[in-house]
Specification:
This protein is an alpha+beta fold. The protein contains 15 helices and ten strands. 49% of the residues are buried.
Amino acid sequence: METVSSPPPAGTRALHTTVAVACAGAAALHFAYAPGHFGVNTGHGLFFVAVAWVQVAIAVLAVRARPAPRTALLGAAAFNLGVAAVWLVSRTAGISGEVEPVRFPDGLAVALELTAAVAAVAAVAGWLANVRLREASAGAWAGASAVAVAALVTASLAPSTGGGHDHGNDGGTEAAAAHAHGDAAGAAKGHTTGGGGAAAAEPAGAHGHTTDTSASAWEKERLKALMGGLSVEEVTAQREASRAFVEQQLRTRSSVLRALPADEAEARIKTYVDWQLAHALQAEHGDDKDGKSSGNHTDGPQEWKPLAPAVNAELQRQLKAAGTVIPKFPTAAEAMAGGYMQVTPWVPGIGAHYLNVGLTVDGRFDPTRPEMLLYNGNSPSSELVGVSYAVLGESPPEGFAGGNDTWHDHPSLCIVGSMVVGSDATPEALCDSVGGKKGAGFGTTLWMSHLWQVPGWESYWGLFSSESPAINLATTDVGRS
């Protein structure tokens, strides 16, 4: 047992103060960003809270009247270095296949943890034990370091430096849907065709997955539109309904999961769906194909190019022809009877996709023969909300007259048993874990374009906009049908 009969020298006490202040600052950051991580799963949130409480205990121990035991200080150094190592892995090799960017809050937390570790080792080694230091100077150091750390921690919580918490989600929706690991604040471009659900914004977090924190006015508008102004309870219910749908698809479609023990299969399913829900609105941001942008969806409301009279007349003819499809498939039940099958869960902004493979393989564009039909939910009674054209080829087809239709592709979706359960951004290892395969599955590029002219479901972002604000959490039948 270690015993001490007198207070340590002033220099050693200054090192103890450094350990305490640094750990207190890191703990404050972990407490501040823990709530967002509980949205991923309880384990993530508990990790943040546990780290914070241990750092609080270290801070208290370090400022005792008598010096902390050597073993306790070395343990404090090892603990902080371990937490910093977790951060380093997430920013280099990546966790679950995702390499995360460095943000101010997590960088500050790691700097404080490294400072605490070095100061603890220095105190044990007695580096300042023989340094003459006036009591007033030691007190001044304690006060100045505490003020500096408090200022830095406070700055990390400000939107302009720390990443911000306001993602434009009114009515408390953000609080309900917030979850860590890259949640959907920065998602003005594109969409995810997997994960299928009510996911909203996440605060950027120390040691956690972060999002683009410079949300533009358009990004905030997009998020508000896709959330539909629902309450916290409604968003939570819809998210759980979306979770249940994707989990069931994995259970019934994956031969890999069926071959595993039930507890291991369920653990993989939970990990997978947690990731998809956490990225449901920001996963498709021009994800790369061979290191280059794959295109994906255009950003924001559609810019309409003026058309010459003859071209406009041809476009109107094509749109009228496309409109003849609408009364044939009013619900998903008619779509399935007509040769279409569901290939994606319902996703805000784009709906659930039903594909007719026979129409797809011919590689031609015909306004009266849309390869995909879009519905407002995952049930047979879900309503038609739009149509989508999907044409195989090395380059986009000419499509509708005038060139205002926008085409995108998805080169590396995660597919399990013909159902798209994850976006291009899904890490390959994560897709493999549930028996999925990355790729579009056609051997060549599948070019897609949406058309929003179903009465009552028109998109005010544009006739051919990549996403439609009419397809939102308030208008879906997910969780209601």
